[in-house]
Amino acid sequence: METVSKETTLWKKLLETTEKIRNYQSRAISKGKAPVITMTQMQIMGCVLFSPEKSVRVRDISEELGITPGGISQQVDTLVKMGLLERKPDEKDRRAVCITLSEKGEEINEWVDQFLTNLFQKLLADVPEEKRWVFAEVLDSMYQTLEKL
């Protein structure tokens, strides 16, 4: 009989939970309760939102997400056509273009933020406060380790 390591159990639970969250969001989209954007598009918007200057280059998004610049450009084109992102000249390099959230993109971000906040309130409703902070500390530790890899 094969024994499963704690790490295997943990990563599987993490991925299964992440997939459930994605599915929950997809169901909300299909019911018309959420903006129709893909997870990749949400990740791209997140790269812009979480950048210190709220403005990034396609190359930076590509490196962050591990997707080719061409793939990112196609998604950015779609998001620009949807009115969620804007392309602006880079003030530091005239040859480059920076991607920023549009006003509509900011509204979508606010909706997603509220959607996920409400979801996490439901998910954590029965979790004692001290366990929530332990969970947050574990996530912080994982994040810091990933930053170093």
Q: What is the fold's blueprint, element by element?
A:
Layout: H1 6-30, H2 39-49, H3 58-65, H4 69-81, E1 85-89, E2 97-101, H5 103-123, H6 129-148
Antiparallel strand pairs: 1-2
Q: Class of one domain, according to the CATH hierarchy?
A: Mainly Alpha
CATH topology of one domain: Arc Repressor Mutant, subunit A
Largest sheet: 2 strands, antiparallel
Structural class: mainly alpha
Quick check: average pLDDT?
89
Order of helices and strands: HHHHEEHH
Helix content estimate: 55-70%
In CATH terms, what is the architecture of one domain? Orthogonal Bundle
Q: Could you list some keywords that capture this structure?
A:
mainly alpha, Arc Repressor Mutant, subunit A, two-stranded antiparallel sheet, 6 helices, 2 strands, 7% strand, globular
